C-alpha cells in the first residue's frame, strides 16, 4: 500500500479531540490530585482551564500546555498542521503568545511507514512557523495507534491573562468558528463527506486561533476559552463553573459549518457526542420552539481546534464587534448568547 492509499483515520478508534476521555471520567481521574502548594501557580489543575499559568514576576507569566490526539484526517501533513494548531490554541485562549513547542508523537511503526510520520512533523513545523515559533524537539514512542500533538510554552502579561471561568452577569457570549467539526469529521471517516464540505472543514480546523492574543488586551473581554472535545455546551459549562450564573443561548445565532444539516439529517454522530451529552444534558433546558434533535447534534459535538469562545461586558460590545469585522470575522459579529443570574438549569437554549 502506498502513502497516498493509507487512511490514517482507519488506524485510530477516535478522531481528533473526539478521543478525549469523557468529562465524568476525567473528574474521577483528577479527584484529589490538585496542585495547591505553589502560590505563584495562577492557574493549575484545580481549574478546568486551557493551560497552566505560572507567575514569573510582577508583570509576566508563563503559559504551558500539552495537547495531542489521534488522526482526524487521512492526510499526514494536514494532520500535523491541525494537531499543532489545536495545541497552540490553548495558549491563545489564555490571551497569550506562544514562544516554543515540542512534539509528542506516537506511531505504530509495524503498521505505518515512518515517511508518514515525517509528513506529520513537517505539517506541525509549518504551523509553528505561521505562529512565529520553533518546533524545537520532542519525544516519540511506538504506540498501538497513531497520535500527535505539541507541548507549548507561551508568555502573557498578567493584565492580559484570560481565564475561562470569570464571566459576569450581563456579559455577551461570542465564538469565532462554526460548530460541526465532529459531525463532518465522522462523515469523512465513513466516506460520506462531500468534496466541497471536506475542503471547508480542512480550512476551519487548520486555522490558528491567534486572535486570542489580541483579545487578551481588551479589558472588556472578561473570560475566554476554546471549544474542543467537550463541545460548545461542555466548555460553556466550564465557563459557568461555580459562579452564580446561567447562560442563555440563541439557537438561531450559533454559527454552523455550511451544509451541516445534510449530515445531521443522516444522523451522523461522533461517539464522543453521546458521552458528552450523558455528562451534562441534565443541566440544559431546550425551549419547545427549538429543534431539540438538532441541539443534540450541535451542543455536545466535539470540536477539534474549534473557535475561541469569550464573554464581553456590555460596555465593550461595540468595540469587540468592530474588532471582529476588522479581522475578517464579520460572520461572528453577533453574540450567540448572554450570561444571566443563576437559574435551575445552567444553560437555556431559546
Could you characterize the architecture of this molecule?
By secondary structure, the chain is α+β, with helices and mostly antiparallel strands. It has 2 domains: 3-160, PurM-like, N-terminal domain (60s Ribosomal Protein L30, Chain: A), CATH 3.30.1330.10; 172-349, Alpha-Beta Complex (Phosphoribosyl-aminoimidazole Synthetase, Chain A, domain 2). Helix content is 32%, strand content 22%. It has 11 helices and 13 strands. A 7-stranded mixed beta sheet has the order 8-11-7-12-9-13-10. A hairpin with an 8-residue loop joins strand 1 and strand 2. Helix 2 runs parallel beside helix 3 and helix 4 crosses helix 5. The longest helix has 18 residues, at 114-131. The protein is globular. The N and C termini lie far apart (51 Å).
Main traits of this protein?
6-stranded mixed sheet; 7-stranded mixed sheet; 32% helix; Phosphoribosyl-aminoimidazole Synthetase, Chain A, domain 2; globular; 60s Ribosomal Protein L30, Chain: A; 2 domains; 11 helices; alpha+beta; single chain; 350 residues
How would you summarize what this structure contains?
By secondary structure, the protein is of the alpha+beta class. It has eleven helices and 13 strands.
Encode the helix/strand succession as letters: HEEEHEHEEEHHHEHEHHEHEHEE
C-alpha geometry: globular
Number of strands: 13
Mean of pLDDT: 93
User: β content, as a range?
Assistant: 15-25%
Biggest sheet overview? 7 strands, mixed
Distance between the termini: 51 Å
Q: With helices defined by DSSP (H or I, 4 residues minimum), what is the helix count?
A: 11
Instruction: Indicate the CATH class of the largest domain.
Output: Alpha Beta
Low-confidence stretches: none
* Assembly category: single chain
Number of domains: 2
| Structure class | alpha+beta
Strand arrangement, major sheet: 8-11-7-12-9-13-10
